[in-house]
């Protein structure tokens, strides 16, 4: 009886989405736009709790890869699995529910909302009280709003941003605005966080701080992170592994030092600089 019970439990756990290891696995992912082959049979595994740097010259396919993982684009072929779940066929909203979040290259905060309200928006997919309740300002909506506000305040605190809670996004430096975006992404309670060029436009001291922030967040929220970045110092100091894309193909993958000295990688970068 006990054996039957444990077999049934094991079967349920295997069937239930989101109970695999929190590993991101891309296998042979390809996508083309007209004649442009943006990703060509890209395979990549990012282990749970690690930071993977994703680098490559402009147009290499890095953002496209993020767009495929988050359901913005459907790959033409190949599979993407996260936490034991096949993401490839899922709509974006479902993918967020599997605790995948991202930030974007360009900061997109709503200027008519203050900072904490912008952060609260990150929880929109768990809007249990619903729009109608919000319109009628029912008690359950007010309760949910209070809880979300408290959670947003905690996340702002973990990013050292509590003093900006009531500020307008228009009054923030780029470095602070980018951290607010990060806070908004964390509001969806992700386990996989995709960061698209978080250091672009930041001054040197902000980049150093950002590195520390990402490291701290990984520990605190138990995150697996993929970091697209052109800032080599940041990637090389932060990433456990680095993947290099060039013209849609995976050119190299390994520990930062090995990738940095890989002749194929050096050639790809020199080629793109010419
Ligand atoms: N929606 C689209 N329609 C047409 N072409 C696209 C689309 N999205 C991406 N591409 C093309 O796919 C290729 C890869 O673009 P992608 O933005 O993924 O590169 P990237 O590595 O992120 O570049 P960057 O470092 O400049 O941000 C480029 O040639 C780009 O023009």
UniProtKB/TrEMBL annotation:
CDD domains tied to this protein: ABC_Mj1267_LivG_branched
Domain of life: Bacteria
InterPro entries per the UniProt record, alphabetical: AAA+_ATPase, ABC_AA/LPS_Transport, ABC_transporter-like_ATP-bd, BCA_ABC_TP_C, P-loop_NTPase
Spans annotated as Disordered: 1-21
Segments forming domain ABC transporter: 24-272
Coiled-coil regions listed: none
Entry GO MF terms: ATP binding
Gene3D superfamilies: P-loop containing nucleotide triphosphate hydrolases
Keywords: ATP-binding, Nucleotide-binding, Transport
Designated name of the protein: ABC transporter ATP-binding protein
Organism, scientific name: Micromonospora sonneratiae
